[in-house]
Here is the input.
Amino acid sequence: MPADKPDSDLSSLRIDKTKKFADAPKSRKWLILVWLAIAVVLVLAYVTLKKSVSPATSVKVGTVEQLTGSSAQAELVATGYVVAQRKAEVASKGTGRLEYLGFEEGDVVKKGQIIARLDNEDIKANLEQAQANLLQAEVDTLNKGRDYIRQKGLFERGAIPRSLLEDAEAGYRASLANHAASVAAARAAVVALENTYIRAPFSGTILTKNADIGDIVAPFASSASSKGSVVTLADMSSLEVEADVSESYIHKVSTGQHCEILLDAYPNEIYPGKVKKIVPTADRSRATVLTKVSFDKIDDKVLPEMSARVNFFTEDKSSAQEQPEAVLVVPKEAITTRDNNKVVFVIDGERVRMQTVTVGRELGDVTEIESGLSRGDQVVLTPPGKMVDGEKTEISN
Here is the structure.
């Protein structure tokens, strides 16, 4: 550089740092803040949207109900079914085609009455042949007997040797044996014919008709096309209720204990009864003991296989001085456990609310609720183990 050039010319070559920030675009700090705000908004929107469109858990619900009267007064309630103690699948001892069926469902029959008949023309023919053989055997026995008597007289007079007498005796005894065999054959033919008639083993009512005219009936239904029984017969006077009592409460039940039977088909009808028998074994899978309850009074409305509820009383209900207070009950399957507390999940709009409850007596398929619920509350039945408070649900059909 020439020496005569002033130093000020060199300063023009320096970078002006202050001018850099002045001439540059706006600071990127604001851009970063904007992107952060957008990200937060997107996250919040995603969470909100996911919460609103997340699939709801399909549940079945029950209702908190109120029990009054004898149901509330009962010390124990159990559920069961009406059964007939005298019941039979009436079948034939023979095999053949069903030719006659004289009764239908609901008909009453007397003991020994013919319900149905199999095709028995071949059996009748066998019987006629057996009876003819019996007649022939009787004639043969008569002739052999007379010959034996004659030979015996001749032998006593010394007119014939002993060998002829022995032959006559042997022939006579053979005819007697043949006659006995013919009698047995005729009797077997009679029994075979009787087996084609299906008779009522006891007086009762026809419950179901299991075969129709033209069906093949066999004693053990060995083939898929054959029928094992013709009708199902029950003695309606032997109806009683078989109720399952929890083994935890079986100590409250005793033979002869006063009960009330309520049928689900006629909830306003009360049938008095008493404990007839406690079966001396427990059901391991259900932890129950079978209890048989007989009817003190019964009418035509009570039918086999009807579902029933039995109220057990520790003392005669008529001795109660005051009307029992109403109690709230909830289905057993609605109660579950969370953190060692008994809880139920109450339907609250589209979501559930976990509610701690205090439980009381077990009354059949429902449980008494002492606190925590109100009448009319809808609760989830058999709630899933992972169900939590506030979970979205929908009621299934």
In short: The mean pLDDT is 84. Residues 56 and 393 are 5 Å apart (CA to CA). The chain is about 25% helix and 35% strand. The longest helix spans residues 121-156.
